Amino acid sequence: MKVFRMVAVIALLATPVYAQAPSLNLLMDKPGKTQDEKDADAAREKAYQNSLKKIPDAKAPADPWGNVRSPDTPKTVDKASAKPKTKTGSTAN
């Protein structure tokens, strides 16, 4: 008897879930396109390709601080040329 009650409870809980599912046939064949639709798609694709050709090429990345730096200043510091600073004098407080 408990098994029958459990089956009934599960069936009652699953019924609303089944009712919310759409009843669409996803495997249904779609009708073919007419010649006018094919021509419109071809014209749309051609216009899209032409608009892609009108986009300018990307420029080199801009350096906003380029005019501030002098051209002979190195951008990186070599460790060989950087000498450690030596302290002279006493540091007594």
What tags apply to this protein structure?
mainly alpha, flat, 41% helix, 93 residues, 2 helices, single chain
- Oligomerization status of the protein chains: single chain
Instruction: Kindly report the average pLDDT value.
Output: 77
Our count of helices gives 2
- Uncertain stretches: none
Give the fraction of residues assigned to helices. 40-55%
Task: Please state roughly what percent of the residues sit in beta strands, choosing from under 5%, 5-15%, 15-25%, 25-35%, 35-45% or over 45%.
Answer: under 5%
Summarize the structure.
By secondary structure, the chain is mainly alpha-helical. Helices cover 41% and strands 0% of the residues.
Outline the structure in words.
It is a single chain. By secondary structure, the protein is mainly alpha-helical. The protein is 41% helix and 0% strand. It has two helices and no strands. The protein has helices spanning 2-20, 35-53. It is flat, with a radius of gyration of 38 Å. The chain starts with a helix and ends in a 40-residue tail after the last helix. The model has no long low-confidence stretch (mean pLDDT 77).
